[in-house]
Amino acid sequence: MMQKIQKFGGAMFTPVLLFAFAGVVVGIGTLFTTEVIMGPIAAEGTVWYNVWNVILSGGWTVFNQLPLLFAVALPIGLARKQSGRCCMEVLVSYLTFNYFVNAILTAWGPQLGVDFTAEVDNASGLAMIGGIKTLDMGMVGALLISGVVIALHNKFFDTELPEWLGVFSGSTFVYMVAFFVMIPCAVVSVLVWPKVQIGMHAFQGLIMSAGTLGVTIFVFLERALIPFGLHHLLYAPFYYDNVAVNGGIYAAWAKALPQLAASTEPLKQMAPWAAITATGWSKLFGIPGIAAAFYVTAKPERRKKLLALLLPITITSILCGVTEPIEFTFLFIAPPLFIVHAALASLLSTCMNLAGVVGVFSGGLIEMSSLNFIPLAATHGMEYLRIIPIGLAFTAIYFFVFRFLILKFDFKTPGREEDTEEIKFGSKKEFRAAHGMAQSVGSADPDDAPQIDESDPKMVLAANILDMLGGKDNITDVTNCVTRLRVNVKDPSKVADDKDFKAIGTMGISKNGKAMQVIIGLTVTQVRERFDQLLGNQ
To answer: The whole model's pTM is what?
Structure first.
């Protein structure tokens, strides 16, 4: 079960990667089209306004079509074969499902308790998806329908039909089956989902009333779930679906930016539902404190090399909000430090909330700037100034707490290890020779070795990772998130230890039964591509 949950979590993360750029476009576009900030040049109807409004309209694409994006992206990670064709099957089936829902509610809306003549907005429970007026089932509905079609694809894609029916094989056959499956799915949805919406509205009220305590609990759980790769499943329904606010916090905040930019009312009063996205403060202020503690507690002769490692991953955390590279450097060596990290991150976010700092603050400085500081600084700059003293105070707290614990309990954090072996990218041949392995991937016969470009460090790394995971024959499936290669294996006893993975240039491995997560960093997509090549998954 854990394998399936982790695989689903990794697959679900794919469309989230688009948010970084989309957020920048929306933030800058909102700034340049807000008359209160820019003056008469940004008045509606001016050339300046019209040009930037065109750009801003394109920036809304990701936020306006989130359910569609989640539906289409899921097969990338979950389809067992021909994932590109599966994406097409999901797209047309999901649209078909929504057309069915539209037709049912047009004919029998009043009997089902749905006013289908209402305008599409937060209160009506309706949405426009791909130009189709339908029930607002958000990300959950999209993922459910996508999951159904993926299951049909995995079962029926290779179905052999008589030669005279060959034109209906493959994707066509999958869609034929899905077409008729979508009818009962639509019927069940129009019967059940309006009741679910009532419950969700009640839950939204509960979340809103939780206030600062809700932020404290949410941020702690989000950090604590990172080692298991399950944090996506916690925050995704809040950030991208209707749990906290209709449309999801990200989309709702982006759409509210013009109103927020034009008002001086405190953001905590105008958008209290955005408070739980405070998971990014530890990325901005906590990680530098941890890095500094690692540096000063390292052996003097190893500090120079450690600094070269710490600088890029700390900058990555600050700018991009990606913390796994540094967190996994100490997670398995000193688990208590990670619990302390989760607690401090929660406390930091709590203090920010108490100071009235509310907004979309789950990513790094780039995302924070695009969705908060750039478009809202003119009217809410004083609120944002509170961030600096609180954040720097916690950087110091992180530093002194981590330094004390590392020295007190002699945790072997980076730079303090007994093993002085250099960590480097070696060639595939050198690595296999050092470990007594055959010069091939997944075979004991050197003559079976696939052609590998050893001048490509990412290919070398992918080949070494494959060896460490027990070879090609030990791999069940593979996906990835933003920093981790997520692999399910047949026999976990064949998988090497964490220190071996670090020796080939990764940041370690997290094991949970047969579910493995190899921590690589922001180049994971390119490594995954090479890994697929070695597996023969083109």
So the answer is: 0.66
